[in-house]
Write a structure and sequence with these properties.
The chain is α/β, with parallel strands linked by helices. The chain has helices at about 30-35, 55, 75, 95-100, 110-115, 130-140, 175-180, 200-205, 210-215, 215-220, 235-240, 290-305, 310-320, 345-355, 370-375, 405-415, 425-435, 450-460, 480-495, and strands spanning about 15-20, 40-45, 65-70, 80-85, 105, 120-125, 145-150, 170-175, 190-195, 225-230, 245-250, 260-265, 265-270, 275-280, 330-335, 335-340, 390-395, 415-420, 440-445, 465-470. It folds into 3 domains: about 10-105, Rossmann fold, CATH 3.40.50.720; about 110-320, UDP-N-acetylmuramoyl-L-alanine:D-glutamate ligase; about 330-495, Mur ligase, C-terminal domain (Protein-Tyrosine Phosphatase, Chain A, Alpha-Beta Complex).
Length: about 500
């Protein structure tokens, strides 16, 4: 991104309303940036000061006007600029008030894209984008390049934009909400990675078509010098090629590619710029599951086009142990393994979590035998060999998606399903409709998250895995998936069987 002209943008003496502080500081970064630029900032949020105490503490040294527990019309009609949180829908009556009064509406990410002087790699998809973002960031760091990692992964980069140089590297995870807003300024990343597309956030986007159109902002405004990296194995993503204006590369676990990243005899191979390099054998990957092999391939391909040396790519892959709340090993208690996969907020992500623990799964497509060959439970690598089954804890907020495929995977891949939250009844009906009178898996509905964890622990036996992989968002039970995962780990840490 060329920030030469954008640097002239000034916020000095502007009256700015930041809509949505967030429980975990989602609006803190843009607020601190605006104050540093000389703006007069009002932060407004429907939640109370008590609920937002953690975020407020991060602003206590700033001259910011806080309007909490409500929004008022004047904050949207009598200002120079409104900054909307990506979670705020376009239909918000307060954003409409701003539009009716010709008040510009912007977002933190849009401002960052306009000001950033360094090339940006953006990563999106329904699942896998956080792991891919973090791993690519590690590859770039190991190359010796100053690297900035942020976006939807939970880190604001706007506060640091003045520290960035043109030779730096920026890696940003992008949600559909953020991309929907980014499309309005007609900007896309220099390098774009798309991991996969499955129905998600249909409570917001209403239809799968709308969701996909929001995601396509990541490629829509690229030019002939840009790179787009697509998942060859994902049918919806494969169709994006004809809409890409720049250079398209693929990654695949099922096909050896003329250019891109792929598997060949269990080796990860990068073929780019007429050079074919073996990165590592998949037995060296610490991450479990075929879906994580796909994430590794995506990051390898992106690293290749951004100039990371093969040695740095390989070292990052071998040493990367994953992110918190993504198939995270918590504890072994009397031979029972507890895993926190709270980040699995879609049915497809939870399906991948279940599949990661299969050892002899039959499949109808090439590449699926990796569940066995990657040996997710090698002694010393992933806590021993397992002979039991999977007990999954699932359920939460209903985003309007189907649970039929998840229910099918529960039937063939688990011995017991513990459900809780708003979707518990819906998921249970899906499972019962498919399994009929068959005994397995047993399905239980618990009234609280804590009771669900206790129930899973009571049922589990030596060799089993207790897997928190909810297939749903956490709203209504927890503020976000991080809090849900932290609660799970806390409950497990207290167990003394």
């Amino acid at each position: 991104m060329d920030g030469t002209t954008a640097k002239k943008e000034s916020f000095k003496n502007k009256r700015v309303t930041v809509m949505g502080l967030g429980l975990f500081g989602g609006g803190v970064g843009v607020t601190r940036f605006l104050v540093s630029q000389g703006a007069y900032v009002t932060v407004t949020d429907l939640k109370s000061a008590e609920e937002l105490s953690r975020s407020i503490k991060l602003l206590e040294d700033l001259p910011v006007n806080l309007r909490l527990g409500r929004h008022i019309d004047e904050d949207f009609s009598s200002v120079d600029l409104v900054i909307g949180n990506p979670a705020v829908p376009e239909s918000s009556k307060f954003l409409q008030i701003a539009r009716d009064n010709d008040i510009p509406i912007d977002t933190e990410l849009n401002i960052f894209f306009r000001l950033c002087p360094a090339p940006i790699t953006g990563i999106t998809g329904s699942n896998g984008k956080s792991t891919t973002t973090a791993l690519l960031g590690e590859m770039l760091k190991r190359s010796g390049r100053k690297t900035w990692i942020g976006g939807n992964i939970g880190v604001s980069l706007l506060e640091h934009v003045d520290e960035m140089e043109p030779d730096d590297a920026v890696v940003i995870e992008l949600s559909s909400f953020q991309l929907e807003a980014l499309g309005k300024i007609m900007v896309s990343p220099d390098v774009s990675v798309v991991t996969n597309i499955v129905p998600n956030h249909l409570d917001r986007h209403k239809t799968l078509k709308e969701y996909i159109e929001a995601k396509k902002a990541i490629i829509r405004f690229q030019d002939k010098d840009s790179y787009t990296i697509l998942n060859y194995d994902d049918q919806p993503v494969r169709k994006w090629k004809d809409e890409c204006k720049g250079n398209v590369l693929w990654y695949s676990v099922t096909k050896e590619l003329e250019e891109g990243a792929f598997l060949s005899k269990n080796e990860i191979v990068l073929h780019f710029d007429s050079k074919k390099s073996v990165i590592t054998d998949i037995s060296e990957i610490k991450l479990k599951g075929l879906h994580n092999v796909q994430n590794v391939l995506a990051a390898v391909c992106a690293a290749g086009v951004t100039g990371v040396p093969v040695r740095a790519i390989g070292n990052a892959v071998i040493h990367f142990s994953g992110l918190e709340h993504r198939l995270e090993f918590v504890r072994s208690i009397h031979g029972i393994l507890y895993y926190n996969d709270s980040k699995a907020t879609t049915p497809e992500a939870a399906i991948a979590g279940i599949k990661a623990f299969h050892h002899s799964r039959k499949s109808d497509q090439a590449g699926q035998d990796l569940y066995a060959s990657s040996q997710p439970y090698r002694p010393g690598r992933a806590h021993g060999t397992r002979t039991g089954g999977v007990i999954i804890i699932a359920g939460g907020y209903d985003k309007g998606v189907s649970f039929n495929k998840f229910a099918h995977e529960c039937i063939i891949g688990t011995k017991c399903v513990i459900l809780t939250g708003g979707t518990a009844g819906k998921i249970k009906r899906c499972i019962q409709d498919i399994k009929g009178v068959n005994e397995k898996p047993e399905v239980y509905v618990e009234s609280s998250f804590e009771e669900a964890v206790i129930k899973a622990s009571a049922i589990a036996r030596e060799g089993d895995v207790v897997l928190l992989s909810p297939a749903c968002a956490s709203y209504g039970m927890f503020t976000n998936y991080e809090e849900r995962g932290a609660r799970f780990k806390e409950l497990v840490s207290r167990m003394d069987r």
